[in-house]
Design brief:
Blueprint (H helix, E strand, L loop, with lengths): L4 E4 L6 E2 L2 H12 L5 H7 L2 H7 L5 H10 L7 H10 L2 E2 L1 H10 L4 E6 L3 H10 L2 H4 L2 E4 H4 L6 H11 L6 E5 L2 H4 L8 E4 L3 H8 L4
Helix pairs in contact: 1-5
């Protein structure tokens, strides 16, 4: 069945997310024991709530701050995360080259505020015709509902679609809906792997 739609993950595919590199920099700057801030930002129930759109960015950052007795400058932390979130320009340009022939969409586990920042500042709104985001749908990959939402928005079947993600455990379940899956490593590998489907 001919491919009609191509869907991209965001983190570490379309954007070099600022969370992983930014937090260690912040730990160093403030002499916070290595890994402690990352745990407070990521390995807590409120991270999942944030990515599901159940709490706002301000509420999330306030919860992170509580781990440090209110002494953490959360505005500086926020700035560090945003400044270290960089568009993957080569992949974005490649996606742009696919736009004339295919429906392009994004399927992402992302907090609303962060995704909106990427969407509005990295040129995604000019390239992608749909977005299925965990914070808007209140489900996260690998839940099939997020993938089904993407298919519905594109008006295609799974067999007519490709999904590109850097994490196999988030992508592989989409095969149940018929998606063709590519695990992203770099642009060169993506171009090589995608040929067999197009």
């Amino acid at each position: 069945m001919a491919v009609k739609a191509i869907f991209f993950d965001s983190g570490n595919v379309l954007v070099k997310e600022g969370f992983t590199p930014g937090i260690p920099l912040f730990e160093q700057k403030l002499n916070i024991p290595k890994g402690l801030l990352y745990q407070s930002c990521h390995d807590r129930p409120y991270w999942k709530e944030f990515t599901l759109g159940l709490i706002s960015e301000d509420a999330y950052l306030a919860k992170v701050q509580e781990n440090f007795k209110g002494e953490l400058n959360i505005q500086e932390l926020k700035k560090t995360i945003y400044e270290n979130s960089l568009p993957s320009l080569d992949v974005i340009e490649y996606a742009k080259s696919l736009k004339p022939k295919y429906f392009l969409g994004i399927i992402s586990n992302n907090p609303k505020e962060w995704f909106d920042y990427f969407w509005n500042n990295f040129g995604w709104s000019d390239i992608f015709s749909s977005k299925s985001v965990s914070a808007e749908l209140h489900v996260r990959k690998p839940d099939l509902k997020i993938f089904q939402d993407a298919l519905n928005k594109a008006g295609v079947k799974g067999e007519e679609s490709i999904y590109i993600d850097d994490r196999a455990e988030k992508a592989e379940p989409a095969k149940e809906l018929g998606f063709n899956i590519i695990i992203f490593k770099n642009l060169r590998q993506l171009k090589k792997d995608i040929i067999k489907y197009l």
